[in-house]
Each structure stands twice: as structure tokens, then as C-alpha cells.
Amino acid sequence: MNQYDEIKQGEKGAWVSIGAYLGLSAIKLGAGYWFVSGALVADGYNNLTDIVASVAVLIGLRISQKPPDKDHPYGHFRAETIAALIASFIMATVGIQVLISAVKSLFAANHHIPNLMTAWIALFAAACMGGVYIYNRRLALRINNQALLAAAKDNLSDALVSIGAAIGIIGSQFGLPWLDPVAAIAVGIIICKTAWEIFYSSTHALTDGFDENELSSLSSTIAKTKGVKSIKDIKARVHGSHVLVDVIVQVDPELTLIESHQISDEIERRMSRKHNIMSIHVHVEPDELIENTGASKPENH
Prior knowledge:
Largest sheet: 3 strands, mixed
Number of helices: 9
Order of helices and strands: HHHHHHHEEHEH
């Protein structure tokens, strides 16, 4: 299965998320307004933002499948990252609106005690999203799709949000009606936190940021390749769900062009096998330390 087939498989997870969010948001908003539960309404709006995020991921996956052209020689894989960035702004806007509404409800003169049925609805939604999380996580790990893995983490946070809403609703049944708007505030904070995390990871990737620990791991694999004397420079960047690596390695200056090329091929094989990196540019240079010592082959007498 090539990288485009993997992206195609990732669409299944996006569609599963969209279907689940459509059904659950309709149930939560309807029951939340009918039974006067601010926490359940907030949770329903959370799922509405998740629909937008899932659609953005789906669109990004579709665009990412376009083959490289003269304007995009590396392909269109960053489309999914841009889509996630747009979704983060929408999620933040809704999260702030939920917070404002919940705070007003908290300081209102009268607190409504929601029907206990809304708690069961929230728990049912949590179980559904837990199942979606397991499905998407397994699929993301199988096809190595970072966008879908991020969506799976969002599925898990949605399950936790629903559990929090249920706790607030149940607490209000025991003479603590303020727990319901407090739970709504917690939901709003989680929406904003998730939006920030998506925004940060997207902008970090779009500005060619890369994790130092992961770069060190890549460097260690290359350094252990037979024939590599040292690594002069190494850079890596995220391109959609894939990593692009540029490395300059130094080898014995006495090696032939063919032998140096074989070292490059071995580096590419090791990076593909150990780190699943399919695009790496290797530049080979003579080892400066060996050259400066004036080492030469022994003479025959």
C-alpha cells in the first residue's frame, strides 16, 4: 500500500467521525434544550465543532491525494494541515461562546435542575465516542496517518467531555444545581484547549518546526549506518503525515562513487524500515578529519 492508498483509507475514519458527531450533536442539543441542561447543550455544540473539524480533515485528505505537479513538486500533503488550522479557529470561536453562555447561567438568579435523562444521554454519547476513538486510533496506527490519529485523540476528549457533563447533571440532582453550568464551563475550556493544541501543532508544522528528540533519533539511526564517519548536518520537516529529511554525511574520502552511493542507499533503507520515512535526500562528502590528517594508502616495497 503506497502513501496515497493510506490517505484513501484514512477517509473511512473521517466519515465515521462525521456520522457519529451528526447523530450525537442532534440528540444532545435536542435533549439539552428540552430538559434545560446547559452542560448537555455545551457538549452538543462541542460535537458541532467536531463535525467542522472532521470535514476539514476529510477535505484535507482528499486534496492530499492529488499527485505532485510543477507548482507542488513535493505533493499536496500539507493540505490536511491547513484544513486543521482553519478548524482550530472555528473550534475556538464556539468554545468562547460556550464559556460566555455558561458563566451567565452560573451567575443567574435561578438555576434549573436538568432531567436525569440527560445524564444517561451523556453517558451513552461517551460510550459511542469511546468506540469511535478505538476504531480511528487502530486505523491511524495501521496506515501511519498523523491527521487521523489527531482526530482520534479528539474523539477521546469528546468522550471525556460527555462524562464530565453527566457528572454535572447528576450532581444537580442532589441539591447542587450550580454543577450543571460549572460542567458547561469545563466543556468550554476543553473545546478551547483542543483548539489551541490543533492550532499549535498545525502552525509548528507549517513553519517547518520539528521535534528535537525525534530528530536526534533519526540522526542516531543514520550515524550507525556502516560507512558513515560523521553527520555534518541534518534537517527534517513535516509534510502532511510524512517526514522529509535532508542530511549531509561524511565518509572515507578514499571510497569510490559507487561505494558512496551504496551508503546512501543503505541510509534510505534503514530510515524507511525503522522510521517509515519514504523521502530522504542524502548528500555525501569526504570526511574532513581524515583528509586533514593526510592519511594515505601504505606504499608497497
